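Progress note, project year one: complex with zinc ion.
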Amino acid sequence: MSSVAAGQDFVRTVKGIIRKRKEQIATFREEENEVRKFVLESFRRLGRAPTLAEIAKDLKMNEERAEASLRKLDAADMLYLEGGRIVAAYPFSNQPTPHEVTFTRDGTRTYSMCAIDALGIAFMFGESVVISSRCGHCNKRLEIQVGDRAGSPDEEIMVFFGFARSEHAATSSCPILQFFCSRAHLDSWRVANPSKLGAPLNLEEATSLGKEIFGGTLV
Ligand SMILES: [Zn+2]
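Model obtained:
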C-alpha cells in the first residue's frame, strides 16, 4: 500500500470512528449517559472502575438498572464487561497496560487501552497528564506530557495507528495502537509484523487524533 493510500484510509477510518461514537452517545437514554459519565469520572477520581454497588449508590438507582445501563454501553462498545465487571471504559483500562497515565494535578494514576486513548485523556478532562509507556519495538521507556504544562514534544516519538477492528476495540485494534521511540523502530516493527495494517503518525498527529476522539465527550 502506498503511503498516500494508507493516509486516505486513515482519514476515512478516523472520521468513521468519531462519527460512530458521537452517534452512539446521542442514542443513550439519560440514565445510560449518567452511568457512562460516572464510570469515566470514577476512573479520574479513583484510578479504577467503579463497582456496580458504587454506581447504584451514587446515582440512586437499584443495581439491576445500573447493570442494564452497563450492558447497553457494552453493546455500544463504550466499555467492555467481563463477567459483569468493567474491564475497560474507553479511554481507560481497569487492569495494567503498557500505557500508564498520571494526572498532574493530584497524581491519580490510571491505565489507558492504547496510545491514542492515552493522548485523549487530557482532552476528555481538560487537564494535563503524564504518559509513561514503552517503545513497541525496543521496550525503551517513553514519557510524554500532554496538556497545559506540556514541554516541547519529543520529535522522535511515533504512534502506529492500526486499522483492524472487530466487535470490541479492546480485543482488536488496541494492542497494536502503540508508541515507538523513533520512526526507525516503528518501521522495524512493521517489517516484523507485516499483517498489521495501519498508518504511522507523529506525536502531534496522534495527539490531535486523541483530542478529536475524546475531547468534549464528557458533557
Ligand atoms: Zn525503540
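Strands lie at 79-82, 85-89, 92-93, 100-103, 109-112, 129-134, 141-146, 158-162, 178-180, 198-202.
Residues 135, 137-138, 140, 180-181, 185 surround zinc ion (CB under 6 Å).
No further modelling is planned for this target in the current period.
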